[in-house]
């Protein structure tokens, strides 16, 4: 059995043996997704949403990776009161000290330290012998434990590690003070039966395993991250590491919404529960997708646009007779409500403020006023204003809070006679700049104008337009992906004018690139 103190750290109560701790790593592993980067403001918004959902542990970043990561972990640590806040550190005292510096003001701080234990990683990546990896790990966990009561240790590439060595390391990590042992399937290689057997093997062979919570961290390279995580829970794991929308390195991590709903819907065969309020899922998914610029695929389980849509006549007929015929959970249980007409141009500030609250936004007075002005502007242009419009409008405004480059105005001449041209005004670090450019079409002219005002070598990898709602007066939501020196970023913009939305999306991506330029991936440890 774990000690009372350890259980409390993990967010469990004494008799709650079937409670699965949800450890969210959207802000750390999720942010390591190619194309993803979040600034401090964005990370704080995601952290607020995670806390609001009832997530037990929020991994806020990798403090040694950059000053931006350090500040983000520190900011989240200072702000979040109900969830534990974790920071990642390699097995080095420098990393651990930096992580602690960022975490020390948290109400419930956790240091998460890791080192690879598979033969492949130890020989080629670390160039260390198993004995020196073991020694380094014990030193790291001991050092972390001297700073922080709550220490988690992960054997990276755990699923491809030799069992004897894995058992030896897990036992030593617990002896050195780790109260959570996280087994990562770093490369998404394992399958459910095999992973369950690995967890069982650890429970049977590591003599002090009952002094720690077993956690799992599954990547989705074979599409099995959620299945593997659930199999591990059935085998005795009680913490799952996951991300909103399943974002993360390569094919991503286990998707939190799928784990939470699988446990909720199939409690009959998996009698475990989490503390996550599933009704917050849709809003958090939307927030993460807007901030990262990663659209959720339409057929994605739980949060995809089609997850609750019924196209075929037979299904629609069944649904009308009894929703249970084709729906195993209600849209409301994941926080989806039918599109509701909000208000028109005669709606007042009071009603608008109430609507923002209903949609989950807690904005300061200035931000509400800004949003209200933009809402009025939208209501003048668009006959029907829906919840989705308000969400797009407010997200668009909030995304730009810390931007160095800001959109001011755009006038485009388009049409078949050409040449298409764009007159653009931007604010760059507080200076207003203006230019006129031409291009092969209005989008190209607009992007050329941005390049003229803010010269850069980034390559445009993706340009995508979505309509937020139906109708020709719908707001356009544009995604732009840029690449510079192997680093990719996604930007988003929304407006009833597709070209204005395009300019905003490009500028948003450029601002993200400026954040990402400061970041460099920490190298592997070496002996
Ligand atoms: O995938 C992985 O192995 C990780 C560890 C740092 C837990 O992200
Ligand atoms: Zn990972």
List the helices and strands and how they pair.
Layout lengths: L3 H6 L11 E4 L15 H14 L3 E5 L5 H13 L4 E7 L2 H11 L5 E8 L2 H8 L3 H18 L3 E6 L6 H14 L3 E6 L6 H14 L7 E6 L6 H10 L4 E4 L13 H10 L15 H12 L20 H9 L19 E3 L5 H10 L6 H17 L3 E2 H13 L5 E9 L6 E9 L2 E9 L2 H12 L5 E9 L8 E9 L2 E9 L2 H20 L10
Parallel strand pairs: 1-2, 1-8, 2-3, 3-4, 4-5, 5-6, 6-7, 7-8
Antiparallel strand pairs: 9-10, 11-12, 12-13, 14-15, 15-16
This protein binds 3-methyl-2-oxobutanoic acid and zinc ion (ZN).
Textual characterization of the structure:
There is one protein chain. This protein has 527 residues and is α/β, with parallel strands linked by helices. It is 40% helix and 20% strand. It has helices at 4-9, 40-53, 67-79, 93-103, 119-126, 130-147, 163-176, 192-205, 225-234, 256-265, 281-292, 313-321, 349-358, 365-381, 387-399, 442-453, 498-517; strands spanning 21-24, 57-61, 84-90, 109-116, 151-156, 180-185, 213-218, 239-242, 341-343, 385-386, 405-413, 420-428, 431-439, 459-467, 476-484, 487-495. A hairpin with a 2-residue loop joins β15 (476-484) and β16 (487-495). The longest helix is centred in the last third of the chain and has 20 residues, at 498-517. The protein starts with a helix and ends in a 10-residue tail after the last helix. It binds 3-methyl-2-oxobutanoic acid (KIV) and zinc ion. Residues 29, 114, 154, 156, 182, 184, 186, 217, 219 line the site of 3-methyl-2-oxobutanoic acid.
